[in-house]
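Notes, Module 5: Reading structure tokens.

Key idea: the token line is not a picture. It is a compressed description, and you learn to read it the same way you learned to read a sequence, by spotting repeated patterns. We will look at two proteins. The first is printed below with its tokens.
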Amino acid sequence: MRFRNLRMTDQPAQNGLIPPPTSEPSKAAASAETKPKKRICCACPDTKKLRDECIVEHGESACTKWIEAHKICLRAEGFNV
């Protein structure tokens, strides 16, 4: 039995050769779409300022609200924190 005209994709064969099977977009391509547009040091200046001022005045353990708010902002900007 010969499988001469069997193709794995919907793409037409070129020059009599069968194209390789197509695959789903890779994770690298998906992460490129969500790549941050800014450097992390420049993202979310408002929440960063509030977080830093709180830590200086009250200590890190008293500022979890501002730390989490800054992390949420960074994630919204595309950072993985």
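Here is the second protein, with the sequence above and the tokens below, as before.
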Amino acid sequence: MAYYKAADSKREQFRRYLEKSGVLDTLTKVLVALYEEPEKPNSALDFLKHHLGAATPENPEIELLRLELAEMKEKYEAIVEENKKLKTKLAQYEPPQEEKRAE
């Protein structure tokens, strides 16, 4: 009998935890949205994932990709700048375009 009370107590603690953290409200809202959907989606699980994904913090992998993108943009800008400098240097050593056409 004591075992059942301990299990009920743990269950009740977990339920309160979910309630305090807002999980129950969020799940309820998403399930209500699914219920009220005039045309039920083929995959209820995909519907839940889509609607829950919008409310959750971003995936850490996405943040890593954003950082990588920012680094690549910086490298790209540096390479473009270096390319401009090299073209300017090269122009000093090449004859003007009109002289090339005259030949």
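Summary for the second protein:
- Residues 60-93 form the longest helix (34 residues).
- Helices lie at 2-20, 23-36, 44-53, 60-93, 97-102.
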